[in-house]
Design brief:
Protein name: L-threonylcarbamoyladenylate synthase
GO molecular function, one term: L-threonylcarbamoyladenylate synthase
Distance between the termini: 45 Å
Organism: Streptomyces fimbriatus
EC number: 2.7.7.87
Helix content: 25-40%
Structural class: alpha/beta
Radius of gyration: 16 Å
Number of helices: 6
Shape: globular
Keywords: Nucleotidyltransferase, Transferase
Largest sheet: 10 strands, mixed
Amino acid sequence: MAKYFDVHPDNPQPRTIAQVADSIRSDALIAYPTDSCYALGCRLGSRDGIDRIRTIRKLDDRHHFTLVCRDFAQLGQFVRIDNDVFRAVKASTPGSYTFILPATKEVPRMLQHPRKKTVGVRIPDHVVTQALLAELGEPLLSSTLLLPGEDEPMTQGWEIKDRLDHVVDAVLDSGDCGTEPTTVIDFSGGEAEIVRRGAGDISRFE
């Protein structure tokens, strides 16, 4: 059974956040809120976590996983960004955007797109997620919590706990965070390519 953590959306309890971070370090797979919708998350190098996310969402090996980062300095350790792209990404973070960029050697091979050698990165504008990332001290490997055959992600922590009780280890609930996933922008070719229209304003990339 998954552990259930009820967290204040504006003032997350440090002890609870520390417990969740400890569970992630121990290879737990969690469901957690972001500024766009709920996501599945695990430790950066957790092969078991990656396999479980793939199984839950029925993903193939071409799926871009996302490294959810605390800040721009952390993000810069995991992707290569030229000056023009740097300005565009910097101006859009934190926020509801995921950027696909060439991965650095810091990104485990199993997380990279098998052909393009790219990875998704983002910096969320969400108090609870930021608190968790600060406590964890490294990015959270993530994927939108969108189940196969469904059009929208789940929005309620109790519903996630009920439906995924035996396939995730913990549910972090800080209330409804919406159903619209991030806007995905692929910069791996140098120019902005809109891969998915979501919560982030796309006008600056058109």
